[in-house]
Write a structure and sequence with these properties.
single chain; alpha/beta; Rossmann fold; Dna Ligase, domain 1; 4 domains; seven-stranded mixed β-sheet; seven-stranded antiparallel β-sheet; 21% strand; flat
């Protein structure tokens, strides 16, 4: 039978069903089948519920049916909780009877490996061939808190309250903890989805579904993996222009990076690749579920700031100092208050108060003091956001303070107001019943992180969508011919330099000497002083074993240097196969460019301060291909050491245009040649003059481009 069609989108069958069949409903109170049916009834689902169980006539006071074929009315959504080996049969019944959507709770599929993987593949194929959508398997269920639907189709003991945050979780077990935490914090949701194994409905599908949900103001996700990360970035860039996306991504360890042989591969790793992708599309990242909820509350309740200047209003100096440190550490600025603002504050605050920022109204401050102080700060053109701090004194009620703050915050002129209230549990019990109040935090650090994320998202939203611009003209066939000379592994240095030259990336003059006898002639051709670098099969980091010698000034010095190189290589069990002779670089700072390719995420590019200690200092930034000129400049300017490139203590500034141009060419190289798995240009001399900027060393590792 052909599935019925709801007016709307296919996932409406799952999130806005008019009827639900609970296949595997149970009378046993200690079973998932009982808990889920109980939650549907207790949550007052606004549709019809059909328990399906061949061994029971009535469950939870509802008439039960032996199978789906016996259900007398059309079914929009089937929730499947039968033993694993019975799932495919139930799914066939669903397709036969025209069920519109599926949520498969049952576990034991791909997460168990072996037979489960093949069973899940068959399940996916059958569902997609039948033209229906499926959440799961191995999931906790779904929730739609819209009163017109009121569906809690999960086995969680904690229901979701109505709010404006859509939550997607890849973990069912963590989903229970998420719902518990949201309830404890008084955070409301529009929808909640436990994706499970994502055999059909993916995180990308759910982000697109929540994109068009008018009640969802913020999209939150807990992810363990990306199914299609590049597609996610495309979707997120579009959705993020409408509403923020906030993610906790687990699996941040660096084991995968330890096997990398290039500096870029060792520094990048999968987690930094994820961070670069998320930053590219404006997605915010939290480190913990607690931090995610801290930020989500601010995004949900506050307008986006016009800048990063923070004013702090407090009745205690200690917490204000903590807040100041936390804000500065998060990259925010402590606002300088205008003279008019100081005058307004001085008109009602005691003489002992501090009128600078932070504004310390001292312990005698009342709710009226907070209201007047907040109004003055919000009226200051030099203030973009306000952090209100209250430590409860004996003679003041914190509820009165937060109410006064809330009334002023409603007229905040588009400026976020967050509150840190160091109060008792009774206070927080009251606050979580008041969704109209500003976001309230227990400690300054949490509020400061939330403000910083507001600023990051607002900054990204203000950026116009950039044009990629034309590609640089390159003979790609010639580059591919060079790359094809090695099936898997590192290109010889001379071939790697040829690749750079094809991309018109400036290279220090070099010559190749196949024998030691030709080294002196090569040095004369490029001009002294020179560097001599020996090549050998399997030798990657030449300087580590003494296969590189720098600063050879004369032809007479060549022979002794070659003997030193050969002795050092012999100790490392290497035999020289030739020598690359290169003119020494001129004045400038050493920087690094790199490419690292992840099999799932594709290539990312890196820029930072280079040299021997790049992995020690790790002053680098990453970008995702393709890279526009604006994005490339942001990467270059984003390293901590960028002031060095601008020139300090009388030094000339490096040519920024060259640095940006080379980074874009490296990005194009990564994009157009998937056989390049890793690349290091290190060092590259960042010089004041264009004709002095040049690559002094390069390594390129190639492999099977199909594995990207």
């Amino acid at each position: 039978m052909t599935p019925r069609v709801l007016t709307g989108r296919p996932l409406d069958f799952i999130f806005s069903p008019r009827s639900i069949a609970v296949v595997g409903a149970s009378r046993r109170r200690d079973s998932i089948g009982f808990a889920l049916l109980h939650n549907l009834i207790e949550g007052e689902f606004q549709g019809t519920i059909f328990p399906v169980n061949p061994k029971a006539g009535v469950i939870h006071s509802l008439k039960a049916y032996p199978d789906l074929a016996s259900v007398p009315d059309p079914v929009d959504l089937a929730i499947v909780m039968v033993p694993r080996d019975a799932v495919l049969g139930v799914v066939e019944d669903c397709l036969e009877t025209g069920v519109g959507g599926l949520v498969v709770i049952t576990a034991g599929f791909a997460e168990t490996g072996g037979e489960g993987v093949e069973l899940e593949r068959t399940l996916r194929q059958r569902v997609r061939a039948g033209g229906v959508r499926m959440v799961g398997p191995n999931c906790m269920g779904v929730i739609n808190a819209d009163p017109e639907v009121s569906m809690n189709a999960t086995f969680s003991p904690t229901p979701a309250r109505r709010g404006s945050i859509g939550f997607v979780s890849q973990s069912g077990a963590l989903g229970v903890a998420i719902l518990n935490a949201a309830s404890d914090l008084g955070i409301g949701l529009t929808q909640f989805t436990s994706m499970g194994n994502k055999a059909d409905v993916s995180g990308n599908d759910l982000v697109e579904y929540l994109e068009d949900d008018e009640d969802t103001r913020v999209i939150c996700m807990y992810l363990e993996s990306f199914g299609n990360p590049r597609k996610f970035t495309q979707i997120a860039k579009r959705v993020g222009r409408k509403k923020p996306i906030l993610i906790v991504k687990s699996g941040r360890t660096a084991e995968g990076a330890r096997a990398a042989t290039s500096h870029t591969g060792a520094i990048a790793g999968p987690d930094l690749t994820v961070s670069a992708l998320l930053a590219r599309c404006g997605v915010l990242r939290a480190n913990t579920i607690g931090e995610l909820f801290d930020v989500a509350r601010a995004l949900d309740h506050c307008p986006l700031p016009a800048g990063n200047r923070v004013a702090i209003l407090t009745n205690a100096g200690g917490p204000a100092i903590m807040a100041t440190d936390a804000c500065v550490n998060q990259g925010l600025m402590i606002a300088s208050l205008g003279e008019d603002t100081r005058t307004r504050l001085g008109a009602f605050l005691p003489a002992e108060a501090s009128l600078a920022n932070p504004v310390d109204m001292i312990a005698s401050a009342t709710e009226e003091s907070y209201a007047k102080g907040l109004e003055a700060l919000l009226d200051d053109d030099g203030v973009d956001m306000v952090l209100v701090i209250n430590v409860t004194p004996l003679l003041s009620n914190p509820i009165d303070v937060i109410h006064a703050v809330g009334e002023v915050a409603k007229t905040s002129k588009g400026k976020p107001v967050l509150a840190v209230m160091m109060a008792t549990e009774e206070f927080y019990d009251e606050v979580k019943r008041r969704p109209d109040l500003p976001p309230v935090y227990r400690f300054p650090e949490s509020a400061s992180r939330a403000l910083a994320q507001l600023d990051r998202y607002a900054t990204w939203r203000r950026q116009p969508e950039v044009e990629m611009g034309p590609s640089y003209p390159v003979d790609t066939e010639a580059v591919e011919e060079i790359l094809s000379r090695v099936n898997e592994g590192y290109l010889p240095s001379r071939d790697a330099f040829q690749v750079l030259e094809h991309y018109r990336i400036p290279v220090a003059p070099y010559r190749w000497a196949a024998t030691r006898e030709g080294v002196a002639a090569a040095a004369r051709e490029v001009g002294f002083p020179v560097a001599i670098k020996a090549e050998a099969a399997g030798l990657v980091h030449k300087s580590d074993i003494g296969a590189v010698r720098l600063g050879i000034e004369t032809e007479e010095a060549v022979e002794p240097v070659l003997l030193q190189i050969e002795d050092a290589m012999a100790e490392g069990s290497f035999t020289p196969e030739g020598f690359l002779v290169q003119r020494m670089g001129g004045p400038g700072h050493e920087v690094i460019y790199g490419i690292s390719t992840d099999s799932r995420f594709g290539p990312i590019v890196m820029f930072g301060l280079g040299g021997r200690y790049v992995e020690v200092f790790r002053d680098v930034r990453f970008g995702v291909t393709p890279l526009s000129a604006v994005e490339a400049e942001e990467v270059v300017r984003g390293i901590r050491g960028f002031p060095l490139l601008e020139g300090v203590r009388g030094e000339s500034a490096a040519d920024l245009e060259v640095l940006v141009e080379v980074l874009r060419k490296v990005a194009q190289l990564a994009e157009h040649h998937p056989r390049i798995l890793e690349l290091d240009i290190n060092p590259f001399v960042a010089a004041p003059e264009r004709n002095q900027a040049q690559a002094l060393d390069v390594r390129i590792r190639v492999g099977d481009g199909d594995k990207r």
